[in-house]
Amino acid sequence: MTATPINFQVSLPEPTTRSYNQTADATLDSFNTGKAIVARGVDMVFQTGSQQFHALKEINLDVNVGDIHLLMGPSGSGKTTLLSILGGILTPTKGRVSLLGQELTRMSRSKLAKFRLNNIGFIFQEFNLFPALTAIENIELALDMKGIKGRAGRIAAMDLLEQVGLEHKAKSLPRDLSGGQKQRVAIARALTGNPQIIMADEPTAALDSQSGHAVITLLRKLAKEHNRTVLMVTHDPRIIDVADQVTYLEDGILQERSSAVGW
Questions:
Q1: Residue-by-residue DSSP string for 28-86
Q2: DSSP character for 228?
Q3: Using CA atoms, how far apart are residues 26 and 3, in angstroms rounded to an integer?
Q4: Longest CA span, the chain
Q5: Per the CB 3.0–4.6 Å rule, which of 127, 150, 168, 254 could disulfide with 182?
């Protein structure tokens, strides 16, 4: 039986009626600190029949603008669940989340969907490219969803391919690209609409060392030269050297937050 999250984003009650607000009120001032991402008191409970699984427990997290911030820990530790909550894909059972000064946990479904579309770029381990579309067409489709169409969309898509060093592969189908090239197309797609936050789930897990290094270098450039915030779930120890902060999760509990140096 598939696990179902409690209090998923359906018929969301007004925030003032939520019992967790009283415990979170004391931390709300931190939502105005200029951080890219702030989480306070985040819990997540999944329900399977009569059984409950406590995936996240009282997570407090701050992610700075322009940082590469890693979420690390063993399988099943809650990393991807936390990334999904911070990206507005899942609603926490308890707690509050703010991105770019906007509180996600107080948004309606429609406003949240629009916020994600305009402010967050997602990168996945499996690339998720449409196999029947060329590299440039995959990016154009994402641009079209954000209202950039026609000639303007084609120019913007080619510019994004140039940013990831793949303009010469614009007309190639995914089957004709290497794993590293497909991931760079996925990164270009994530950059459509100029989002300020990039969220990546194991972006180098399926790549060889050389391709993984190219992807890491590109993400570092996005953060440091273009002031984008990169939040990444990873098991890859190669990324630690380029990260600004590392958050370690185990059994749904934040164990430690550290600068990457000396981790």
A1: GGGGGS--SEEEEEEEEEEEETTEEEEEEEEEEEEE-TT-EEEEE-STTSSHHHHHHHH
A2: -
A3: 32
A4: 55
A5: 127
- 28 and 96 in contact (C-beta within 8 Å)? yes
pTM value?
0.80
pLDDT in tens, 100-110: 999 998 899 99
Cα–Cα–Cα angle for 145, 233, 47, nearest 5°? 85
- Residues in the chain, overall count: 263
Both tokens of 157, joined, read 């898509």
Residue 228 in tokens: 């984008």
CA-based nearest residue to 243, from 63, 73, 114, 80: 63
Distance CA 6, CA 4 (A): 6
Gyration radius (Cα) of the chain, Å: 19
* Start-end of H helices in the chain: 21-24, 79-86, 109-119, 135-145, 150-163, 179-190, 209-226
The domain ranges of the chain are 4-259
Q: Are 105 and 96 in contact (CB under 8 A)?
A: yes
What is the topology classification, in CATH, of domain 4-259? Rossmann fold (3.40.50)
pLDDT tens column, 231-247? 999 988 878 888 999 99
